[in-house]
Amino acid sequence: MADKIDELKKIVGAENVIDDPVTLDVYSRDHSFIPPRKPLLVVKPRNADEVQCIVKWANQSGTPLVPVSSGQPHFRGDTVPSSGEAVIVDLSGMDRIIMMDRRNRVAIVEPGVTFSKLQPELAKEGLRLSMPLLPRTSKSVLGSVLEREPLINPRYAWSLTEPLRCLETVMGNGDMFRTGELAGASVSTSTREEATFIPLEEVLEKRKKTQDTALYQYGPGQFNYHKLLSAAQGTMGIVTWASLRCEVLPKVHKFFLVPSEGLDNLIGFAYKLLRIRFHDELLLLNSSSLASILGEGAEQITGLRENFPPWILILGLTGRDIMPEEKVACRERDIRDIAQQFDVSLESAIPGASDGQVGESVLNLSKEPYWKLGNRGECQDIFFLTTLNRVPEFVTTMYSLAEASKYSPSDLGVYIQPTHLGTSCHVEFSLPFDPGDESEAATVQELFTRASEELSKQGAFFSRPYGIWADLAYSRNAEHTSISRTLKGLFDPNNVLNPGKLCF
Fold it and tell me: Does a structural domain hold residue 496?
């Protein structure tokens, strides 16, 4: 064992191989119900070459690796080792913003770059990145994109305009691979055994001369290889950099709140908006979720929740370079006319909150502590994909299960995010609880398990199958599971990358 560790120290330096019990304990657990397990070591590579050497070392030594790019807190169980012999590969030190290009609206970043680091730098260039709802300050941008976290702007989520463009990854066998437009153009020889990559900076410098840095995602050939890495929980490769599509900062940004006692009219209204594509941000929250976003501490959150309407649709309109004020005003008039058809209204405020407060919140990072932990100290989420028209029946099921489990339905948070221009919908149920109350924690764990099973039977699609959801997803499709394992065997023949996750 000592020899193995010495080899690892030669790769990254002794100071970047950590084995103290306190640090190992931090990496042994997260906020999920996955049982904690201490890793053998934590290693912090500084560049892609070191990542590649670590993966080759893992193949030679038979050591499992668990890639981690975001800082604490973690929630899904994907960074908790499945083996006590695992080594955590902490990528947070690889935090370079390699390039920002306003003309082509693209940024290239390493996995350790967080939202709190990237967004201010993009703003200086007049750009922004479409974000998920209130990411935590320590959240890796690449981690979020690779996890397919839903974006609050449903026009751009996971379509031809999705954020992820090209990337570089170290596969489980130690090979390095680049996808998209930077794949073939950056290899110095066509012979695989002798192939070496031209440094990225050199490739970009050549492309800048022709202003060709848009970096499209497809390739080499007609295949989109980065799809293999999306939502793979670090089982298919370790991404060392990626290019991301950005958007120009709007000159005018106006928010509206659409309150309602029920979901049905809001869903009809949302469908209409999604078809005409006038909006930027569009999402639905129940009173509990909005209160958790805006409130500070349990008492204030409870007070806000009691004053808010049961459901709130949040709508953002933007105007950019050409007549921005006129554009927003025109769209606002049309949307107000549409709202009347669905018996809802666009408001600038609701009791306890204004459009400015809500807009500022959803466009920024989460407050500290993370907004889902600010109410009761702990929170467990259940999220899945469905269609927008089916959301009410899933909500009804979840509220019924909560009542049956003697969990207060008023504490249940609901977040509804249309995606793919409304062709699908992300539904997220949040279960806050007091971690110091063993009975309450047990109730939530039981409810989480039961609800996951019942919602799956009802048709919920767990497209990001963490923990027990992996069994629910893969046990129902033997052919898909077999093909996934075959692909895993090609990219990671010794199963060193995060074994025990998904169906691996």
Answer: no
